[in-house]
Design brief:
By secondary structure, the chain is of the alpha+beta class. The protein has 3 domains: 354 residues, no CATH class; 108 residues, no CATH class; 114 residues, no CATH class. The chain has a 6-stranded mixed sheet with strand order 7-12-16-15-9-8, with helices on one face. The longest helix is centred in the C-terminal third of the chain and has 31 residues.
């Protein structure tokens, strides 16, 4: 009916606005917690700041001594809705964090509309389809996962892609699949594609399967501008070792099923990170989708097609992961390359959607009265809003946890200005007890750090950090354990931060800032310096061993290049003429042939010239860029221009043009037939 085109979007919009009423209407007090504030916000602000400066956001010089930020898909650098959010920020000056929250809530609304459309494809009445959409919007996934911006954005397009394929709109399905891939959460994307494939295989005619497979392949093609650089980064980062980190494969604890009936069974409503008694993530200890919706879902198990109930059962098994015999047996038979991206917890996305679809079938089985079905939809929404809204996993109190902005930490502007003044051109690092945000928010504070907090940390760089931090090779964030290590000098670390007071071997206590103690490393090496000798190393382990034994002030360990020898000591100067995210301009003077050593991360795509002539950068000190120099005074330029960025952008752009053309042709042909 025509009026449904207005009623359904308005109903779902009101539900979403009421669910997130705290963060939307009182943003000075309430905010979406955890990763959205401390991970996504700094990345988004860096993206916007780079564009404001007239530069593509390709390289982040503030984190891990540099990283290829454009290849980190969680930044959403190729995701169109994020471009719109950034444009609004640049055009209006509105706070990026508030815009990210608005973007997230808008995606949940889009998800509800997509669920409604998908259910209508299965010929369910308007009221029943709306009830299912209401259960999906207020269900466990969107209630517990708002901190993961990419996971929410991924979920928004899942029902739309499934519906497009079932309606044989293959170009649209490919474009929607590309949005899923570009949304920036690989595990959720894997769950979304698996769910979509399950719906297509079970409910589409076999004659359509080839076209549907082509749509899936088309989605990958359209997402190439992001997928190709991310694939390259994944091979060179700790992301390639995540299978070892997962152990038996992960999964939601089986005890979480109790929260389907008793939402606070695990005490998640009183969550406090300092007193939390469980080892499990509280967001995966919450499956509540409403008691009324649960009853409808149980009825729907009989009323819905058996294929849909089977798919829901499979989603539940995968979601529980290592807590089921079936998943554990399957997981260990997969090659490690396939195990790495599998996070069974993310199949909460599939479970939550299929739960809502079964609930819609249950409503349709109870009644065909439109008014009654609408009232049931309202009951579903009221149930989840009353129980799940405003909980610690979707709403944080700024008064209790002020968090971070570009100008303040923990609510204190003097924390940022104080650390920046003490660093004075050197990098920072963290001692045990320091807040994690000092590393993860470095791009937001614009204070360079030798640490970070990202699942795409470069493997070689983490191997260097392990020399003075300890930990596993797949870790992303490690505090400094050996502050006297000369490796800190090599990394240009001048300031170390802690919440704990007391003396530290090898460090000078510099200043007490609100809630923090700041220490100085008195002998950091410059960011760029000259040495007169280099020693070749055959591999990473050899390079690291030599680094532990030598004085980095007198030598550099070069890997993959012939030994470079010059008289020592070397007299010379290195003047930094200009620096941006993607470029370094230097003037170097030396009385004899020398070797330029940097604490700048080595990565494919970095190029160099000496007096305008191409020069080859070499891997130095296990993880960094180095450059042999002839005697004399020279202009050196280093810049980041990865080939993979250029060709993948061209290929992906051509794909989008073809897909858009196919959508137009299809629409015109259907109009002509009508």
């Amino acid at each position: 009916m025509p009026r449904d085109r207005l009623i359904v979007p308005l109903f779902l919009l009101v539900e979403v606005l009421l669910f997130f009423r705290h963060v939307l209407f009182v943003p000075s007090r309430w905010v979406i917690p955890w990763d959205l504030r401390y991970y996504h916000y700094p990345l988004a602000q860096f993206f916007a700041d780079a564009l404001r400066a007239g530069e593509l956001p390709l390289w982040d010089p503030f984190t891990y001594c540099g990283r290829p930020v454009y290849a980190i898909l969680t930044m959403q650098g190729f995701y169109p809705p994020f471009w719109l959010t950034t444009a609004v920020h640049l055009g209006t000056g509105w706070e990026m964090l508030l815009l990210l929250q608005a973007m997230l809530v808008a995606h949940i609304w889009i998800a509800g509309l997509g669920c409604y459309r998908l259910l209508r494809h299965f010929d369910l009445p308007t009221g029943a389809a709306l009830a299912g959409a209401a259960a999906w919007v207020g269900g466990a996934y969107f209630a517990s996962q708002p901190q993961h911006l990419g996971a929410i954005c991924t979920a928004a397009w899942l029902p739309w892609m499934a519906a497009a394929g079932l309606r044989r709109n293959y170009p649209a399905a490919a474009m929607l699949g590309a949005l899923i891939l570009l949304a920036g959460f690989p595990a959720a994307a894997a769950a979304a594609f698996a769910t979509t494939a399950g719906l297509w295989l079970l409910f589409a005619p076999r004659r359509d399967w080839l076209w549907l497979a082509a749509a899936g392949a088309g989605a990958v093609w359209l997402a190439l501008p992001q997928l190709a650089p991310t694939w390259e980064l994944a091979r060179l980062s700790i992301a390639s070792q995540r299978a070892a980190w997962l152990g038996d494969g992960g999964g939601i604890p089986a005890g979480s099923l109790a929260t389907l009936v008793h939402p606070n069974y695990w005490g998640v409503f009183e969550f406090d990170s300092a007193t939390w008694p469980h080892s499990d993530n509280p967001t995966y200890l919450y499956l509540y989708g409403g008691l009324a919706a649960l009853i409808a879902m149980l009825r729907g198990l009989r009323a819905a097609p058996g294929r849909l109930a089977l798919l829901a059962g499979l989603a539940a098994v995968v979601m529980l992961g290592e807590n089921t015999i079936v998943w554990t047996a399957l997981y260990h038979r997969l090659p490690e390359a396939l195990r790495t991206p599998l996070y069974p917890e993310s199949f909460l996305l599939a479970f939550s959607l299929l739960f809502a679809m079964l609930a819609a079938y249950g409503v349709a089985a109870w009644t065909r009265d439109r008014t009654v079905m609408m009232l049931i939809a309202a009951l579903f929404a009221a149930d989840t809003i009353g129980v799940s809204s405003g909980r610690p996993f979707n709403t944080a109190d700024r008064l209790r946890e002020p968090g971070i902005t570009a100008t303040a930490a923990d609510g204190y502007p003097e924390l940022i200005t104080g650390v920046r003044e003490l660093a004075a051109g050197t990098r920072t690092d963290v001692l045990p007890g320091a807040p994690l945000y000092w590393s993860g928010a470095a791009p937001l504070f614009r204070i360079p750090s030798a640490n970070g907090d990202d699942p795409f940390a470069l493997s070689r760089f983490i191997a260097v950090r392990l020399a003075f931090t300890g930990g596993e090779r797949w870790g992303r964030y490690y505090e400094v354990q050996q502050a006297e290590s000369p490796m800190l000098d090599l990394l240009n670390v001048g300031v170390l931060i802690s919440r704990r007071n007391g003396s530290r071997p090898g460090l000078l206590k510099a200043e007490e800032l609100p809630g923090h103690t700041v220490y100085l490393n008195l002998n950091p090496l410059p960011r760029l310096f000259l040495v007169g000798e280099t020693a070749p190393a055959a591999n990473l382990e050899d390079a690291l061993e030599k680094l532990r034994r030598i004085d980095p002030r007198r030598q550099a360990v070069v890997e993959g290049a012939p030994a470079f020898r010059a008289s020592a000591p070397i007299s010379g100067t290195v003047d930094l003429l200009g620096a941006s995210g993607n470029t370094l301009e230097l003037e170097v003077s030396t009385a004899a042939p020398a070797f330029l050593v940097t604490s700048e991360a080595f990565y494919p795509g970095w190029r160099a010239t000496i007096d305008g002539e191409p020069a080859d950068l070499v891997l130095t000190n296990a993880a960094f860029r180095g450059l042999p120099l002839p005697e004399g005074t020279h202009r050196v330029r280093m810049w980041f221009a990865p080939d993979i960025f250029r060709w993948s952008a061209i290929a992906g752009g051509a794909g989008w043009l073809l897909a858009a053309l196919a959508v137009v042709v299809r629409r015109r042909s259907h109009t002509a037939l009508d």
